[in-house]
Amino acid sequence: MNRTEARKLAEKLVGQMTIEERASQLKYDAPAIPRLGVPAYNWWNEALHGVARAGTATVFPQAIGLAAIFDEDFHQQVAECISVEARAKYNAQSAHGDRDIYKGLTFWSPNINIFRDPRWGRGHETYGEDPVLTARLGVRFIKGLQGEGKYMRAAACAKHFAVHSGPENIRHEFDAKASPKDMAETYLPAFEAAVREAKVEAVMGAYNRVNGEPACGSQTLLVETLRKKWGFEGHITSDCWAIADFHMHHHVTATAPESAAMALKAGCDLNCGNTYLHMLAALQEGLVSEEEITRAAVRLFTTRYLLGLFADDCEFDAIPYTACDTDENNALALRAAEKCMTLVKNDGTLPLDASKIRTLAVVGPNADSVSALIGNYHGTSSRSVTFLEGIRRWCEARGIRVLYSQGCALVDEKLEGCALVPGDRLAEAVACAELADAVIAVVGLDETLEGEEGDASNYSAGGDKKDLQLPASQRALLEALEKTGRPLVTVAAVGSSLNVPQGNAQLIAWYPGQAGGTALARILFGEVSPSGKLPVTFYRSVEDLPAFTDYSMKNRTYRYFGGTPLYPFGFGLSYVPFELSGMEADADHVTVAVKNAGSMDAENVVEVYVKALDSADAAPHPALAGFRRVALKAGEEKTVSVPFDRTAFTVVNEAGERVKGGSRFAVYAGLSQPDARSIELMGVSPLTKELTLD
């Protein structure tokens, strides 16, 4: 069903409603209209990395972990799986009359905000700090979720539009000020791609103001940019209770009816919250018109028609509940977990040689934690394998003894309230380490320490991080383990930049989803070579960064950072050497021969970067312009073609105009960025060519 047909059906249905009924449909919990055969519908649902908050579903790695895979095709495959499970659950629940929150087919995912500052607690919901990576993955997630049949399998929503990345605790009152250049170059490209390329069905506004205008009532963003410039045809929803912020916190309006009117006039069709309960009062006060209310209702019912919710021939109605939580989906979650884990340090300790290990110590507060697997906005997996469980299963099958100690609390000084001194599990952890041939320390954070304001109960502020260090309890644990002299592998379950100095080897596991423990064991013992790449810069300290509230891109992210990172964007080690040769480049793509020069099958990512050489408007450092994941058997060589992103040879000037970046460009193809720190860590430089374009 095309949009024109769906809109005509929506106009006919809405035309039969009273103005009161039309206004009632603009809230996220839209009531039934029995006389017209319209069932109740709740628009609020989540699917960030699996169907969320509605019971059993496959839990994939958190979004930042999926980004670390650097694979568009695989990303779409994950999204397709999520949307099939979404239909399976919707069909079963609606058949039993359950139309509650988190039970619909309109998903408020993906989150394509730029992760500009590592302190932001919600950064792990995003695809990282780069606009090209975020745009490519966002487009493919949307396409996978929505599908390409007669009807949409599910409706995606690009959020939060726009310029939203903390601080969490002042987001309801904060005015994010960004220059025209930063808007067009960094903050908006992923949203433009979502609209123009992926035809995303919905866009969600942010809580904050943007250059003075509340995002959910911004004429600049919602009217001039989204609808007029980009041609967006779907519906716009507010973030939850964001419209109430207009009068309660931003103070750009005085009353709830004024706030409702401001949002509606800017084209915000759906209110997550209750401010649109005042819509009829706004109508009576002459603040809005019946036509404006009708317009919003038509847009919303157009989406419902596109989903086939009023059709008797929707191909997705036959998807059974048994399509959810399948063995096949679990296998996909395992592949995702294996691909996302990122090796950032290794002195040769990894992979572990099982023939030389009789006893293995597994310690740390995240070792046996399901929370460390799932991140936020997650479903409930029936198959979660913690890191400890995965390692124990692998080891027990091979006669290796596993000793376990929690070692410390995630944050608190003591695990037992009656303990007389802090560190009441340190002695046990050290004893386990001393008896072991190697130590796996699983540390990091979880959604209680970094996340959304109100969801996270962390020890800092509103879900954000104060610094880039582990909590003191975990630092003390690692220091004690290091002193034992045993080979120490540090595994960090985390969604953002964290400086963990200890360990002969270190894996960033992210929040790897339900199969995280199985994936970790296979990587530790060399059944799988790690192949993830960092989608964010790992900094040494927040002292290297501008103020959290400064939204200028100066000295932020790999494109503008002037210091030396701990681990750069795009960095990730492998167990096997890969060799690149024969680079060729033209205006459309880069081709390069990639060889697995090792003795085991492995995957890696070819990364292409571009720097405009004769434009003063170019970012200081080469920027990602394309990427391609490649799987090679031991000794295999393959020629890989990487198409350039459409923005590769453009720059954005101070006026916010995207223009040609001149005629001379440096093009790089490698397994990392071409920066000095990446070359130091990788031990090899990317290939490079100068390309001249007329």
What does this structure look like?
The chain is α/β, with parallel strands linked by helices. It folds into three domains: 3-323, TIM Barrel, CATH 3.20.20.300; 330-560, 3-Layer(aba) Sandwich (Rossmann fold), CATH 3.40.50; 578-692, Immunoglobulins (Immunoglobulin-like, Sandwich). The protein contains 20 helices and 23 strands. Strands 9-14-13-12-10-11 form a six-stranded mixed beta sheet, with helices on both faces. The protein is globular, with a radius of gyration of 25 Å. The model has no long low-confidence stretch (mean pLDDT 97).
List the helices and strands and how they pair.
Layout: H1 3-14, H2 19-24, E1 29-30, E2 41-42, H3 63-67, H4 72-95, H5 131-146, E3 157-161, E4 175-176, H6 180-187, H7 189-196, E5 202-205, E6 209-210, E7 213-214, H8 219-229, E8 235-237, H9 245-250, H10 256-265, H11 279-284, H12 290-306, H13 327-340, E9 342-346, E10 359-363, H14 371-374, H15 387-396, E11 401-405, H16 426-434, E12 438-444, H17 472-483, E13 488-493, E14 505-508, H18 516-524, H19 557-560, E15 578-585, E16 589-596, E17 602-612, E18 623-632, E19 637-643, E20 650-652, E21 658-660, E22 664-670, H20 676-682, E23 687-692
Parallel strand pairs: 3-5, 4-6, 5-8, 10-11, 10-12, 12-13, 13-14
Antiparallel strand pairs: 1-2, 6-7, 9-14, 15-16, 16-19, 17-18, 17-22, 20-21, 22-23
Helix pairs in contact: 1-12, 4-5, 5-7, 13-18, 15-18, 16-17
Looking at this protein, list some descriptive labels.
694 residues, alpha/beta, TIM Barrel, Rossmann fold, Immunoglobulin-like, four-stranded antiparallel β-sheet, globular
